[in-house]
Every structure is written in C-alpha cells, then in structure tokens.
Amino acid sequence: RNLADQMSSTETSFHPVEEVLLPNWGDEECPWCLEIDEIASYSGMPPGGEHSQEMLERAELLSKPYSGLQTGLFWSADGGNMPLGSGSIFAPEDATEAELYFAVASSIQEMRSAGKLDDDFAPPVAKVLVPEFWSQGRFYAPAITAAILRAARPHDIMPPQPSRKLRTSVANRLAEAAGHSIQREFLLAIGLRKLPWSDAAEAALVDDANDHVIQDFLLKKILSLPEN
C-alpha cells in the first residue's frame, strides 16, 4: 500500500521490504477462543463437577489474551512444550511456540491467497492439504503438526468424505508412542471437525488416564459429535 505525503507536491511512497500474510480471524475462528469456549462450557466431571488442577491452569492461561502467548499455545499431553527439532523450514530450533505458529499460519494464509487453498469451502471441489503435508516427513515434528492443525480451517484438511489415507494418517499419529505429546491436539481437532473420527482416538483417551478430568472433557467433546 502506498502512503502519499499530502503536505507537499512530491509524492513519497513507502514500500514493504518484506510482507507477511496472516489470517484475519475473529472469535469464531481463533483456535484458542474455540478451545477456551469448550473448556468454559464443561461442567466438570461427575458426580461433583470436578475440575483438575491442569485443566484449571489451562483455562487461566487462555483467559488472559491481553497477556499474549509465547508458550503453551499447544496443549501437550506431556505437560511441556512440544519439540521442534533442528533444520525446520519454519523456524530455528530455539524459536518460541508463538514464533513457530506465526510462521506456519503465514505459510497457510499465503497458500489461500495464491488460490492453493480456499478461504471458504466451495463444493463439490475441496482443496485440501494432503496428509503427507502435515503428518509425515518434513512437517512431522509434533510442534509443526500442532501448529498446522491449529492454523488450518476444517475444509483445509478434511474433505466432505474423508479418504482412507487421511483416516490412516490420523490413526497412526494417535497410536504411536512418539506422538504422545500431540494426542490432545489431535483429539481437539477431531472435536472441531478438522479431522475424522478414528478408533485410535478412543485408545488415546484411555491413554490420557493420568488426568481423569481431562479424559472426561475430551471424551464428551469428541463423542458428542456425530461420527464422520
């Protein structure tokens, strides 16, 4: 955008050295807004409406948007930050989760702006990220996969009729031991209809039994939706 100096006869313009595109989200698409809304609507684990300390801390973290998030963007089942690893094309190994997410969200928005993804789903054709893009190979690191799941819209990942390849990719990531930290991100994505239901999701819920309240929350969040 050119900014002209109106105080002189000589037009002076500013040109960007580098442009970064980001999605123009409102409350209805912000992934952390959606997450805190789900947590806030959870009445607690029966019979007494119990809430665990971890869940209360998660809710408190997400309830302060004015503070911003540098870490804790992703809900790790291991209680810490998800590893990025070295050599990532998105960010250096010591990048914060916020910096990594910024880079991933910008990359996906650039794909939308270039017409490689759709801002809105326009049936019958669905432009989707193939499972290999976000579940294998270069983007396999838990932090990158979590960032893609958060930044993508449902129709960016899952077509109206999920393919066998997509279902297999989801099941494999949920079942593998190395993917334990990212299980909650996958389960939240299933609950938000970004990913299809998989039997492996139920097994992952059982695996999260170290916190029965979070297990109950995720169970109700996911199974309250119709299966794909």
Could you give a short description of this structure?
This protein has 228 residues and is an all-alpha fold. It contains ten helices and no strands.
Averaged pLDDT:
79
Estimate percent helicity: 40-55%
Chain oligomer state:
single chain
Please count the beta strands (DSSP E, at least 2 residues each).
Answer: 0
Q: What is the SS-derived class?
A: mainly alpha
Fraction in beta strands: under 5%
Rg calculated over all Cα atoms: 20 Å
**Tally of contiguous helical segments:** 10
* End-to-end C-alpha gap: 44 Å
H-E order:
HHHHHHHHHH
Low-confidence spans: 1-5
Q: What does the overall shape look like? A: globular
Q: Secondary-structure blueprint of this entry?
A:
Blueprint: H1 31-41, H2 53-62, H3 97-113, H4 131-135, H5 142-151, H6 154-157, H7 164-175, H8 183-191, H9 199-207, H10 212-223
Structural account:
This protein has 228 residues and is mainly α. It is built from 10 helices and no strands. The protein has helices at 31-41, 53-62, 97-113, 131-135, 142-151, 154-157, 164-175, 183-191, 199-207, 212-223. The chain is globular and about 75 Å long. It starts with 30 loop residues before the first helix and ends in a 5-residue tail after the last helix.
